[in-house]
């Protein structure tokens, strides 16, 4: 049994389309605590975080939006995440993907204190490897991967506590990468399993290879699950829809493989925008995936009649 610690992170400052701040409430309404409890796990809901006082931080990149707000969230999430890691498995319910600037910082600080390597599995349509200084859109939900690897361009941010080695990161399911990000990935040691790789080899083979790497290193595994990892036909409630994502079956397979590995130690759920949902379809889908991450098999899912 795992002690699951739910941490609401109604972060809406990392992108331009409002609505992600409603994500934590949608997960609760969709039954995330009930799902975890039905699988035998303990659940502690710590409510929603609030950022601390805003600073007056600036950057030379005029495109960047909401930098002080994002920094305040980063500090709050890092503190909450490090504390939760000492007591159980934190599940960060977002909120846009800029929350990972803080969630992974807290997890990394804990991993360093434990003397274990941290690995990160990025289930996403995007690579999110811009820095504050290089982003052209100004949307800071596109920057976490650069921050957690210790890349330059984050002068206003706290130094990342323990940069994650690039070879310890796996991008899985990406299919929307701009030229600057493509060049950065080409020059990196990050494991890139884009949709071309997954079309060729299937989802199971690359996933098992990465999980075995984590196991061999006695690593801790942080999973960051973005709604747009999924195809918009099964998960429409995201402001960054990209066709060609994981199907219902493929997504559940990935989650079941992660559970069977026994390696996941923390989880982000990001970019759910309930305002764009179809009667809670996406929120329920994401909660179903959390069920698979925590032990439910596809054939164990309750059927809905009528």
Which short descriptors sum up this protein?
single chain; alpha/beta; 10 helices; eight-stranded parallel sheet; 306 residues
Helix content: 25-40%
Unreliable parts: none
Q: Alpha-carbon distance between the termini?
A: 33 Å
Q: What spatial order of strands do you see in the largest sheet?
A: 2-1-3-8-7-4-5-6
What would you report as the Rg, rounded to the nearest angstrom?
Answer: 18 Å
Task: Kindly describe this structure.
This protein is α/β, with parallel strands linked by helices. The chain has ten helices and eight strands. It has helices at residues 23-29, 32-38, 67-85, 100-114, 144-148, 179-186, 195-201, 204-216, 248-261, 281-293; strands at 3-9, 42-48, 89-94, 118-123, 169-174, 191-194, 220-226, 264-270. Strands 2-1-3-8-7-4-5-6 form an eight-stranded parallel beta sheet, sandwiched between helices. Helix 3 (67-85) runs parallel beside helix 4. It starts with a strand and ends in a 13-residue tail after the last helix. The mean pLDDT is 95.
Short structural description:
The chain is α/β, with parallel strands linked by helices and 306 residues long. The chain is 35% helix and 16% strand.
């Amino acid at each position: 049994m795992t002690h699951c610690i739910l941490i609401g992170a109604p972060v809406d400052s990392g992108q331009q389309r409002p609505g992600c701040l409603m994500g934590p409430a949608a997960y609760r309404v969709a039954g995330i605590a009930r799902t975890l409890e039905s699988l035998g796990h303990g659940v502690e809901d710590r409510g929603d975080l609030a950022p601390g006082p805003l600073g007056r931080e600036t950057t030379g990149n005029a495109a960047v939006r909401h930098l002080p707000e994002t920094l305040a969230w980063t500090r709050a999430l890092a503190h909450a995440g490090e504390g939760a890691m000492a007591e159980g498995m934190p599940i960060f319910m977002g909120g846009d993907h800029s929350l990972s600037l803080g969630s992974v910082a807290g997890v990394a600080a804990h991993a360093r204190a434990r003397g274990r390597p941290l690995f990160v599995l990025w289930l996403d349509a995007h690579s999110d490897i811009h820095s504050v200084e290089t982003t052209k859109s100004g949307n800071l939900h596109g920057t976490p991967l650069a921050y957690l690897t210790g890349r330059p361009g984050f002068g206003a941010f706290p130094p990342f506590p323990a940069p994650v080695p690039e070879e310890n990161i796996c991008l899985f399911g990406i299919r929307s990468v701009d030229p600057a990000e493509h060049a950065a990935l080409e020059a990196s040691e990050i494991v890139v399993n884009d949709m071309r790789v997954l079309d060729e080899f299937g989802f199971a083979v690359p996933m098992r290879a990465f999980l075995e790497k984590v196991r061999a290193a006695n690593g801790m595994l942080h999973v960051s699950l973005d709604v747009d990892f999924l195809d918009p036909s099964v998960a429409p409630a995201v402001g960054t829809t990209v066709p060609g994502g994981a199907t219902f079956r493929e997504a559940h397979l990935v989650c079941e493989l992660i559970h069977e590995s026994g390696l996941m130690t923390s989880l982000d759920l990001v970019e759910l925008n309930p305002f764009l949902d179809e009667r809670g379809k996406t929120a329920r889908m994401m909660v179903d995936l959390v069920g698979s991450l925590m032990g439910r098999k596809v054939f164990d899912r309750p059927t809905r009649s009528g």
